[in-house]
Design goal:
single chain
Length: 57
Amino acid sequence: MWPIVGLAFGTVLGLAGAFGGFVAFALVLVLGVIGFVAGRAMEGEVDLAELFSRRSA
């Protein structure tokens, strides 16, 4: 499944870069990464509380 998701994401990035320029490319890239992290968090593979908590050393 992940190769298909990667292919679709790459296609969308390519189209955004071709028709929207660099700003559209960057926006799609950032939103894609946010969506990826949110999906991993919903599956329980990433603990967002641990990522955003302050650590005292």
